[in-house]
Amino acid sequence: MEKQHNWPLWEIFIRSRQGLDHKHVGSLHAADSAMAIENARDVYTRRMEGISIWVVESKYVHASNPDEASSFYDPANDKVYRHPTFYDLPDELKHM
Amino acid sequence: MTVQHTIDYTLHLADNALVLGHRNSEWTGHGPILEQDIALSNIALDLIGQARYLYQYAARLMTMQGGPEVTEDVLAYLRDSWDYRNCLLVEQANGDWGKTVLRQFFFSAYQYFFYRELQHSRDAELSAIAEKALKEVTYHLRWSSEWVIRLGDGTEESHARMEKALDQLWMYTGELFQPAGFEQALAPGGIAVDLGEIKPLWELRVGEVLKEATLTTPGSMMQQGGKQGKHTEHLGYLLAEMQFLQRAYPGNEW
Fold first, then answer.
1. What pTM, to 2 d.p., does this model score?
2. Prediction ipTM score
3. What superkingdom does the record give (chain A) (predicted)?
């Protein structure tokens, strides 16, 4: 194992039988997208976890910066009016 | 055609699956990369699962014949190499990754066309086992084909290693299609697969993949004998390791 591979890293998304969306389950190494899908099948669906696989090479995933978390997310703290909970609904309106 | 022929046939299929499953399991923890270690271990488990169904069926038939009760463990762990009816191909040593995936490819291509036919066997048990196994084998064939192409049509070194693997393994492919006595006896009853029918399908598929892999087959003499219990020296070592525990501690369970 000393001559470790230079295969790129891939992010794996699996949709379960009941699920509507693909959920991130982890990452793995593969030489190309076809091998990434097969590796994902062998690593992440061997206990019947899913029926659909997406793979994305990790380098194409761009993430927000944790250092900017306060300016990114804190301002939403006191904006309760953004939740639609301030309306008086007429009684005739059902299913809300 | 007798029940004994069906027993021999079922044992032959079980031995094929168990021996290759065991060979593949030797890679567990030693794969070239974690993901492929898991992939080959999954294939090993599929094959050993197939072997179990087949041994259980053979054991039932044997017990029904009278005599002491036979179990799947007795068949796997207490028969010696001359009782084993597997083809020579599956017992060959792992070698490098290229040899292992080429051996898998040759055998998966065989199993794929074989099980596709065995699904229509008039033996309901064999037909059911074939139907379940075919889904697994379809993936094994895909996985091993891609590796053969990747390495054959890869770097100079990977190509050279695949050519070497081909030289070592090609001579064991002919036996897959040489019917043994029990196969000939079962053929008219619609129980066994007609090997002559699947041979051209195998040749076509293997030819396509090898061509894409830029590999050419050597014209070696074909070896045979496994189906008659005449094995290469490799099987004895494999069984010694696989059967050690049951031989040293008879009947032990864990």
1. 0.89
2. 0.78
3. Bacteria
